[in-house]
Amino acid sequence: MKVFKADNPFGFVSLLDDLYLLKTIFPSVFQTKHIDQPVRYHPFDVYAHTMLCFHNIQKINKNYLVKFAMLYHDVGKTDQYYYVSIWLMPEERRAMHWLKVHHPKYGIDLATDDFRALGFSKKEIDEICFYIENHMVPGEILTANHENMPNKVRKLLSQYWYNMVDNLFDIAIADRLWQYNPLQSPNIDGLKYLKKLLKEIHKQEWQFGIKEMAVDGNDVIKFFKIEKSPKIGEILNTTLEWILEDINNRNNIKEIQNYWKQKFGK
Questions:
Q1: How many CB atoms are closer than 10 A to CB 54?
Q2: Which residue of 67, 120, 176, 204 has the smallest Cβ count within 10 Å?
Q3: Residues 125, 116 contacting (CB under 8 angstroms)
Q4: How confident is the model at residue 224 (pLDDT cuts 50, 70, 90)?
């Protein structure tokens, strides 16, 4: 903890590797050695890419959990690349992105095991796993139409604290800085724009989530005349998504009502 809260955990992890202790303390990171990646994205194996990203994150973010997450962000590739190496049909490869063998999903299992063994608290592990599981989300946001980006950032902010989303963007920047081959230049302008956009939305709107909506679970029960069930949460979450997509339009309440009336057949 002292090392990761200081300025050079990169040097510490490198020393662990030299002393043959990496396998004992961070076993999942050790397993990324000699795991080759597609050259068009990375000219290094997973371990070298991870260490380069790790060196960069300590220069732009001081949060020790962010540093741990950066160290573990790609550990799931050990399993993902094994399955990719097996002959698969194109549709099977696409389906992998929704399964646990997709590296952000598989990585949280490995991280949970390793950090639990090191004595980390559940709260700390949950935050580390949030960064690992979502470290590709900022890049996915950048693939959306420019006018849709504020809604996507707003939705992310509604689900998590501002600092966590801002940290996630830092992880994406550190990842992208070392996600290139010698013929490419890393483009981080888009990610810097997302950080700026996040700050503006947070300043202007604060953090709009389910708790800030004018309706709650009791209102849903009364309106639909239903018993308490998981459907209530489903209704509230879907309503929140509609609001976030059009946060300045208060006239869509009728659309929401009609949508859920049809769903319940009433």
A1: 22
A2: 204
A3: yes
A4: confident
